[in-house]
Recover the amino acids of this structure.
């Protein structure tokens, strides 16, 4: 069963002027940010979990980091982005928010930066960066998540491409989709995690550490 966008939007909470400005900027400049239905679901799950610290892989313009910080008033967030221009834009947006003191933006490749210098553990990790690198991100940062912590992973559906045979995927995206499919199979059989797929937004995977 598919639900209409109009019906889904009745469950979307109002956003402040800064968030609406960021949404317009993302649309006008073709910057991918989390879909509203997905960020609402993610934030509700985070409210239930109540993490005191979150590591985000993939800042973009800082939209999801800000949304998470607004939903969790007692949580600090470290977010990593390798694109310099986006880092600068994210910092400007975040500096105008009421949660700027709880968000730390790190510029660099998430496979290279040493976040352990900032925090040795994170109750939650949110991965929303290069889709073909999800397993490498997971392997690098899952040791920082304690038992009972959660790793959230967005864009698992990849606008329907993950549901196709590789021969039907555009050639330029086949490696990424192959890696994403391999990651999905790998993590669903991982002995240290219980994972569930949530069909919201572009597909949200929730992995609870045993």
């Amino acid at each position: 069963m598919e639900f209409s966008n109009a019906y889904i939007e009745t469950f979307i909470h109002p956003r402040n002027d800064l968030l609406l400005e960021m949404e317009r900027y993302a649309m006008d400049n073709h910057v991918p940010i989390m879909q509203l239905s997905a960020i609402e679901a993610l934030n509700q799950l985070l409210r239930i979990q109540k993490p005191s610290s979150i590591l985000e892989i993939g800042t973009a313009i800082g939209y999801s980091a800000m949304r998470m910080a607004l939903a969790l008033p007692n949580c600090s967030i470290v977010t990593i982005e390798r694109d310099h221009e986006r880092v600068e834009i994210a910092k400007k947006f975040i500096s105008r928010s009421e949660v700027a003191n709880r968000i730390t933006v790190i510029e660099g490749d998430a496979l290279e930066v040493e976040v352990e210098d900032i925090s040795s553990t994170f109750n939650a990790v949110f991965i929303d960066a290069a889709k073909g690198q999800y397993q490498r991100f997971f392997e690098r940062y899952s040791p920082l998540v304690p038992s009972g912590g959660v790793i959230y992973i967005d864009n698992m559906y990849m606008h329907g491409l993950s549901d196709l045979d590789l021969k039907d995927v555009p050639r330029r995206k086949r490696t990424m989709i192959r890696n994403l499919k391999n990651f999905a199979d790998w993590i669903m059989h991982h002995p240290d995690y219980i994972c569930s797929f949530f069909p919201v937004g572009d597909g949200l995977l929730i992995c609870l550490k045993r």
